[in-house]
């Protein structure tokens, strides 16, 4: 039992522990001296570093921990690398006691290496990666994010157990199935030790642990420090309120965490009693005891699968909506018996034989009374369901510059705090203050400059946006992604079910009629037929029989279920599918592999007085998105012998390539192209007859019989665009958000739908790129580019969308290219493999990608991200899972609230959810910017106030701090994010850089204005005749904080905080106006009214509580109010006109224009590409044709004889060059195909015509 196995990609780095490697014969990477390796496992890349404990260092660390009362361990908790350096030393991975793990997102975890021990008196058997096992005394392993990484002594590296079990030969499973003895008890015990329990367990952390982890976050540690300072400085009221608020916040956080844990646990935690074959006996055990290699018997009437298994016999109908979002039942078939020992199990290639954990088994079918057998592949967190749970438990952090800028700005505020720290010490020493007061005041200044509530305030916008999305039936499992949605500039759409309706409507069929027996002519298409009329169809109605049998429909609870397309076509035939045998009542679950496993019977009306035709479907080759076809083997019981019929349906070009060329009409390509260009979806149908016994037919390989087919005809289906699609695409185009179609459908059909829904604009030219069957002299495939038609202006709204290749000052962005490109998946694969230098430019201008496999969709998203696009992907979740996960924001149209497919799941069954998500993302992003600037402005405003009062050797009173921090700041911050998103998408995207010049100038400018008015108030008050200077307490007198200057500055600053809130809560154009946020408006009105009352006519109890040294005259108090009003007006004017008009409106756009036109690295890559290639597609012609002597010129194409088919890259027909036969090449030009340059060059005015088609 062996199989070739490729180990996971491991990049070894020369982190030598000694100088021995410099000597001759230094150990290779497969020896044990490596300190660092890079491994790729599942969806992540991990950097592993080996370490051993350093005992002397560890002892010193514990002494330091005791001396610092645990603070040293707190620092180690925050900075893992510091802990590593202080307690361990580097070692080889083979000898390591600890592993330092770095992931893709710069997370660092220090994990202990443990020993896996066998049962006493036995050896431990671990997988060797080739289907066999290694016997060892013990195994070294560490765990990371619920996965076990095992040290492999042969590979000399850590591998996950699922990697070791990844490439087991198919023969291994077949042998287990044939033996049917299952695992022996020792084998099961050994595997239980290695693989662990089959349990996806979300443990509820104890409340003390949750509390402790919450409290030791830097935010709350800073709160504890602040409260200690305030209590020592006699701010009891304020400190007590902050403690109370912090406790409430901690309680809410713990409550939310516990609720999410319970919700996740209820969603994923399940176990059942299952039947397995062990020790040659059928045993009933708990699903938690399952291990890979167990033989699992699946019950006939359904269950929830608790592990990933491969099906060995029978058929199973499952619902995989939890994993894919696709609620259509899926039929899984048994793993075919192969004699090729080199074939290994692939989860991608053999997905039709694999049942995944968490999916619901609706029904199983096999011989009556016999069980459906499967072999366990993966358990617990290694399963596909386990991956979903891990993605929820450990969400991908958003790599967003906003977060980095936030920490940089907090660092900047810390620098200001230390400046204030020095200023305070100097002033206090000058004033002769006691040492305790100097220490308290200098420490207090740090709590003022760095607002402790900043992290909590920053999440308000995201939480509010998440609540609004949930109200619109859009669910998000990764809230941090919402801010990223504000930067989206490209959206990729799947076609079927996303842009178009889920179901297809039957339009017509075109049967292929064979020529007369003595005729030398080719088969021809008949006229359009709107029904399957047996007497009008050729070949005894073979096309009707094919459509009636070639499907994956089944009966569940006496109801026909399956793919919607199959249902529509089958119902159109009016045939009857009867899975109940005529000789008695047979349970649904027992209908498998009988003489007539599934009988399809014709209605009597089709054959008049003749008896019904009965066809038995004896084997299905289910639809494969990579093969783009499905097939069935059918037997007619009325026919003698072993005559079998193979019916195949699928993509026209695929089916035509499998057919005997003699059976395909010459105008096949023209007919297909004509319908495809009008947006119809085409399905070609073919057949083959052969003699084969029943047993051989069940074991025959698919590729061995799917050849030399006879074309029967094409079925034309109408796929209507959803009525909401055009409006949404126009909305996105107006907002200069690029729209791309990525579909598995035909290229011309995709282009037609793209025209209809507005992805291809009427004011831009459209070109197709296709591959030919010819090779260039350098061995690369020859490509062709030709012009197609654009959309009609009657259906596409082009108002406000420019067609010029220019910089748009309104959108602050480079306009999209002045043309569209479209490409099919096979051609895209050729470009990626043979012309890799063109891929980056191609994805910048290509807006229609057809015939794309799931892997190619993911590749496209990655390529768009590489040229600096921020990409959203919207799909139905079935074939788009990989692309949805790869995008910055994946939106799955699904009934489920959470699926493995995407961070966003929309119950709205159309693409209206896309602009909703983008609008909410922009609102959340702008809210985060605004609240950050508000909190920074608040702390710096208070800093200026305190600096002036420290000059007097006094401070704000307890209730003054309380009014500012609780009444003015906290209440405003809580409601700040409740301003709804604007209904219209702005043409200008919001800024994504917090440390931009505009943000910095805004904060600094407001600081200057606020500081100037506070200093003016400070000086103005001191100049008044009624002014009484502050008397500094002497000796042990209780500190009296009352001062007239302090009272005046406090009154003015109260309005300045309100002004900052109004300025930074501005909505347009990303949020609705301020008045739409009723709670915030009411709060601002209330605190403004209270501030006017406190300033102009304070009551006696206010004077006592706030410890005012009152301003004696009403006129002077009114003067303070007027100073605050003038300050507010000036602040608002500065922000509105200077920042928004001059800096953002003029300067930023000039800089952007200069960056793009000069090709600066500060601009996005796609902008630089569009600058060079956005006006004409000549770049692709010249790039590919360069140095290619075999590339024919346009005149050469025009001079070709008429009997040579021009290679226009569409669906194929035949060349007449070969006298002895005809070869499948490409179609002839007809009035329906895209315009070719050959036709233009043959006209008289070629010099004035565009070059529409060219070999390149």
TrEMBL record:
<dbReference type="GO" id="GO:0015662">
    <property type="term" value="F:P-type ion transporter activity"/>
</dbReference>
<keyword id="KW-0597">Phosphoprotein</keyword>
<feature type="transmembrane region" description="Helical">
    <location>
        <begin position="406"/>
        <end position="430"/>
    </location>
</feature>
<dbReference type="Pfam" id="PF00122">
    <property type="entry name" value="E1-E2_ATPase"/>
</dbReference>
<dbReference type="InterPro" id="IPR023214">
    <property type="entry name" value="HAD_sf"/>
</dbReference>
<feature type="compositionally biased region" description="Basic and acidic residues">
    <location>
        <begin position="1246"/>
        <end position="1256"/>
    </location>
</feature>
<keyword id="KW-1133">Transmembrane helix</keyword>
<feature type="transmembrane region" description="Helical">
    <location>
        <begin position="1119"/>
        <end position="1144"/>
    </location>
</feature>
<dbReference type="InterPro" id="IPR036412">
    <property type="entry name" value="HAD-like_sf"/>
</dbReference>
<feature type="transmembrane region" description="Helical">
    <location>
        <begin position="237"/>
        <end position="255"/>
    </location>
</feature>
<feature type="domain" description="Cation-transporting P-type ATPase N-terminal">
    <location>
        <begin position="181"/>
        <end position="230"/>
    </location>
</feature>
<feature type="transmembrane region" description="Helical">
    <location>
        <begin position="210"/>
        <end position="231"/>
    </location>
</feature>
<feature type="transmembrane region" description="Helical">
    <location>
        <begin position="1077"/>
        <end position="1099"/>
    </location>
</feature>
<dbReference type="InterPro" id="IPR047819">
    <property type="entry name" value="P5A-ATPase_N"/>
</dbReference>
<feature type="transmembrane region" description="Helical">
    <location>
        <begin position="931"/>
        <end position="953"/>
    </location>
</feature>
<feature type="region of interest" description="Disordered">
    <location>
        <begin position="1233"/>
        <end position="1256"/>
    </location>
</feature>
<dbReference type="InterPro" id="IPR018303">
    <property type="entry name" value="ATPase_P-typ_P_site"/>
</dbReference>
<dbReference type="Pfam" id="PF00690">
    <property type="entry name" value="Cation_ATPase_N"/>
</dbReference>
<keyword id="KW-0472">Membrane</keyword>
<feature type="transmembrane region" description="Helical">
    <location>
        <begin position="1047"/>
        <end position="1065"/>
    </location>
</feature>
<dbReference type="InterPro" id="IPR047821">
    <property type="entry name" value="P5B-type_ATPase"/>
</dbReference>
<dbReference type="GO" id="GO:0005524">
    <property type="term" value="F:ATP binding"/>
</dbReference>
<feature type="transmembrane region" description="Helical">
    <location>
        <begin position="959"/>
        <end position="982"/>
    </location>
</feature>
<dbReference type="GO" id="GO:0006874">
    <property type="term" value="P:intracellular calcium ion homeostasis"/>
</dbReference>
<keyword id="KW-0479">Metal-binding</keyword>
<feature type="transmembrane region" description="Helical">
    <location>
        <begin position="445"/>
        <end position="465"/>
    </location>
</feature>
<dbReference type="InterPro" id="IPR006544">
    <property type="entry name" value="P-type_TPase_V"/>
</dbReference>
<dbReference type="GO" id="GO:0019829">
    <property type="term" value="F:ATPase-coupled monoatomic cation transmembrane transporter activity"/>
</dbReference>
<dbReference type="InterPro" id="IPR023298">
    <property type="entry name" value="ATPase_P-typ_TM_dom_sf"/>
</dbReference>
<keyword id="KW-0460">Magnesium</keyword>
<keyword id="KW-0067">ATP-binding</keyword>
<dbReference type="InterPro" id="IPR004014">
    <property type="entry name" value="ATPase_P-typ_cation-transptr_N"/>
</dbReference>
<dbReference type="GO" id="GO:0016020">
    <property type="term" value="C:membrane"/>
</dbReference>
<dbReference type="GO" id="GO:0016887">
    <property type="term" value="F:ATP hydrolysis activity"/>
</dbReference>
<feature type="compositionally biased region" description="Polar residues">
    <location>
        <begin position="1233"/>
        <end position="1244"/>
    </location>
</feature>
<dbReference type="Pfam" id="PF13246">
    <property type="entry name" value="Cation_ATPase"/>
</dbReference>
<dbReference type="InterPro" id="IPR008250">
    <property type="entry name" value="ATPase_P-typ_transduc_dom_A_sf"/>
</dbReference>
<protein>
    <recommendedName>
        <fullName>Cation-transporting ATPase</fullName>
        <ecNumber>7.2.2.-</ecNumber>
    </recommendedName>
</protein>
<keyword id="KW-0547">Nucleotide-binding</keyword>
<keyword id="KW-1278">Translocase</keyword>
<dbReference type="Pfam" id="PF12409">
    <property type="entry name" value="P5-ATPase"/>
</dbReference>
<dbReference type="InterPro" id="IPR001757">
    <property type="entry name" value="P_typ_ATPase"/>
</dbReference>
């Amino acid at each position: 039992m062996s199989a070739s196995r490729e180990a996971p990609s491991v990049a070894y780095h020369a982190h030598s522990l000694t100088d021995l490697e410099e000597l001759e014969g230094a150990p290779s990477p497969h020896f044990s001296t490596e300190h660092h390796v890079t491994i790729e496992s599942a969806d992540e890349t991990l950097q592993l570093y080996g370490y051993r404990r350093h005992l002397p260092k560890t002892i010193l660390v514990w002494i330091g921990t005791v001396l610092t009362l645990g603070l040293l361990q707190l620092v180690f908790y925050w900075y893992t690398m510091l802990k590593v350096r202080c307690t361990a030393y580097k070692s080889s991975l083979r000898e390591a006691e600890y592993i330092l793990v770095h992931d893709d997102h710069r997370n660092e975890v220090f994990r202990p290496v443990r020993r896996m021990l066998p049962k006493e008196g036995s050896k431990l058997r671990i997988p060797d990666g080739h289907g066999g096992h290694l016997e060892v005394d013990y195994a070294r392993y560490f765990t990371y994010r619920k996965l076990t990484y095992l040290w492999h002594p042969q590979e000399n590296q850590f591998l996950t157990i699922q990697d070791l079990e990844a490439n087991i030969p198919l023969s291994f499973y077949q042998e287990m199935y044939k033996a049917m003895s299952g695992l022996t008890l020792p084998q099961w015990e050994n595997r239980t030790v290695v693989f662990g329990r089959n349990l996806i367990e979300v443990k509820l952390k104890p409340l003390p642990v949750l509390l402790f982890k919450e409290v030791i976050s830097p935010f709350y540690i800073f709160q504890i420090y602040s409260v200690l300072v305030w209590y020592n400085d006699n701010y009891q009221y304020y400190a007590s309120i902050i403690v109370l608020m912090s406790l409430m916040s901690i309680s809410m956080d713990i409550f939310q965490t516990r609720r999410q844990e319970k919700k996740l646990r209820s969603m994923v935690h399940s176990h059942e009693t299952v039947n397995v074959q062990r020790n040659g006996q059928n045993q009933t055990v708990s699903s938690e005891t399952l291990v890979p290699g167990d033989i699992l018997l699946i019950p006939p009437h359904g269950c929830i699968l608790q592990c990933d298994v491969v099906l060995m016999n029978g058929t199973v109908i499952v619902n995989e909506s939890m994993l894919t979002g696709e609620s259509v039942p899926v039929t899984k078939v048994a793993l075919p018996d192969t004699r090729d020992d080199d074939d290994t199990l692939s989860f991608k290639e053999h997905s039709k034989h694999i049942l995944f954990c968490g999916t619901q088994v609706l029904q199983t079918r096999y011989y009556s009374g016999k069980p459906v057998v499967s072999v366990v592949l993966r358990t617990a967190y290694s399963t596909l369901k386990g991956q979903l749970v891990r993605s929820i438990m450990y969400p991908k952090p958003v790599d967003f510059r906003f977060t980095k800028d936030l920490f940089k700005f907090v660092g900047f505020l810390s620098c200001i705090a230390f400046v204030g720290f020095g200023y305070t010490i100097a002033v206090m020493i000058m004033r002769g203050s006691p040492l305790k007061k100097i220490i308290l005041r200098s420490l207090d200044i740090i709590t003022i400059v760095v607002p402790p509530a900043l992290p909590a305030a920053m999440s308000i916008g995201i939480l509010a946006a998440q609540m609004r999305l949930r109200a619109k039936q859009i669910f998000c499992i990764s809230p941090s992604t919402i801010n990223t949605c504000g930067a989206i500039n490209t959206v990729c759409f799947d076609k079927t079910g996303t842009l178009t309706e889920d179901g297809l409507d039957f339009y017509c069929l075109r049967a292929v009629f064979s020529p007369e027996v003595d005729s030398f002519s080719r088969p021809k298409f008949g006229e359009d037929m709107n029904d399957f009329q047996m007497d009008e169809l050729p070949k005894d109605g073979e096309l009707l029989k094919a459509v009636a049998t070639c499907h994956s429909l089944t009966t569940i609870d006496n109801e026909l279920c399956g793919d919607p397309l199959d249902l529509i076509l089958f119902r159109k035939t009016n045939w009857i599918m009867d899975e109940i045998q005529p000789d008695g009542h047979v349970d649904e679950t027992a209908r498998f592999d009988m003489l007539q496993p599934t009988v399809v019977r014709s209605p009597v009306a089709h054959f008049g007085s003749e008896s019904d035709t009965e066809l038995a479907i004896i084997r299905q080759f289910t639809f494969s998105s990579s093969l783009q076809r499905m097939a069935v083997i059918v037997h007619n019981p009325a026919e003698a012998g072993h005559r079998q019929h193979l019916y195949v349906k699928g993509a026209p070009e695929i089916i035509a390539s499998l057919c005997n060329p003699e059976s395909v009409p010459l105008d096949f390509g023209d007919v297909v192209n004509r319908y495809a260009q009008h947006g119809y979806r085409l399905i070609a149908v073919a057949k083959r007859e052969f003699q084969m016994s029943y047993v051989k037919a069940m074991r025959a390989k698919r590729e061995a019989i799917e050849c030399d087919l006879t074309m029967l005809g094409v079925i034309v289906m109408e796929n209507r665009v959803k009525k909401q699609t055009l409006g949404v695409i126009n909305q996105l185009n107006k907002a200069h958000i690029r729209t791309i179609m990525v579909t598995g459908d035909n290229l011309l059909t995709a282009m037609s739908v793209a025209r209809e829904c507005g992805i291809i604009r009427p004011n831009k030219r459209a070109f197709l790129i296709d591959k030919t069957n010819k090779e260039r002299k350098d061995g690369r495939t020859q490509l062709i580019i030709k012009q197609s038609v654009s959309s009609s202006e009657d259906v596409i709204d082009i108002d406000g969308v420019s067609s010029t290749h220019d910089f748009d000052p309104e959108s602050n962005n480079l306009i999209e290219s002045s043309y569209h490109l479209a490409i099919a998946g096979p051609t895209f694969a050729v470009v990626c493999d043979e012309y890799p230098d063109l891929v980056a430019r191609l994805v910048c201008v290509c807006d229609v990608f057809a015939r794309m496999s799931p892997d190619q969709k993911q590749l496209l998203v990655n390529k768009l991200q590489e040229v600096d696009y921020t990409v959203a992907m919207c799909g139905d979740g079935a074939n788009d899972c990989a692309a949805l996960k790869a995008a910055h924001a994946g939106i799955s149209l699904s009934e489920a609230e959470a699926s493995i497919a995407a961070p966003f799941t929309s119950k709205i069954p159309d693409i209206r959810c896309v602009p909703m998500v983008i609008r909410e993302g922009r609102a959340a992003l702008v809210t985060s910017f605004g609240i950050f600037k508000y909190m920074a402005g608040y702390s710096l405003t208070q800093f200026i106030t305190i600096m002036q009062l420290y000059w007097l050797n006094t401070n704000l009173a307890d209730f003054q701090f309380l009014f500012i921090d609780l009444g003015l700041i906290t209440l405003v911050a809580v409601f700040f994010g409740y301003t709804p998103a604007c209904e219209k998408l702005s043409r200008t995207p919001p800024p994504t850089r917090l440390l931009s010049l505009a943000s910095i100038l805004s904060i600094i400018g407001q600081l200057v204005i606020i500081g100037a008015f506070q200093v003016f108030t400070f000086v103005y008050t001191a100049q008044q005749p009624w002014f009484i200077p502050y008397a500094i307490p002497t000796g042990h007198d209780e500190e009296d904080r009352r001062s007239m200057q302090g009272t005046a500055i406090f009154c003015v600053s109260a309005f300045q905080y309100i002004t900052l809130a109004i300025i930074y809560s501005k909505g347009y154009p990303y949020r609705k106006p301020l008045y739409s946020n009723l709670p915030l408006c009411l709060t601002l009105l209330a605190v403004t009214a209270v501030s006017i009352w406190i300033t102009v006519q304070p009551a006696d109890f206010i004077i006592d509580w706030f410890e005012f040294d009152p301003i004696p005259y009403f006129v002077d108090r009114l003067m303070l109010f007027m100073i605050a009003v003038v300050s507010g007006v000036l602040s608002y004017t500065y922000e509105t006109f200077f920042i928004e008009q001059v800096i953002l409106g003029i300067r930023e756009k000039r800089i952007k224009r200069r960056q793009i036109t000069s090709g600066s690295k500060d601009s996005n890559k796609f902008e630089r590409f569009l600058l060079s290639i956005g006006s004409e597609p000549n770049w692709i012609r010249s790039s590919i044709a360069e140095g290619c002597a075999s590339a024919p010129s346009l005149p050469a194409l025009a001079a070709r004889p008429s009997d040579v088919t021009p290679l226009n890259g569409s669906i194929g027909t035949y060349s007449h060059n070969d006298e002895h036969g005809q070869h499948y090449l490409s179609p002839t030009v007809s009035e329906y195909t895209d315009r070719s340059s050959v036709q233009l060059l043959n006209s008289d005015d070629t010099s004035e015509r565009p070059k529409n088609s060219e070999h390149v």
